[in-house]
Amino acid sequence: MSLNSSIEWTDATWNPVTGCNQVSPGCDHCYALAFAERFRGVPNHPYEQGFDLRLWPERLKMPLKWKKPRRIFVNSMSDLFHADIPDEFIIEIFDTMAKADWHIFQILTKRPQRLSRLAKSLPWPDHTWIGVSIESNEYAWRADLLRQVPAAVRFISAEPLIGPIDQVNLAGIHWLITGGESGNRHRPCNPDWVREARDHCLSEEVAYFHKQWGGRTSKIGGRELDGRTWDQMPRVG
Question: Distance between CA 228 and CA 236 in Å, rounded?
Answer without folding.
Answer: 25
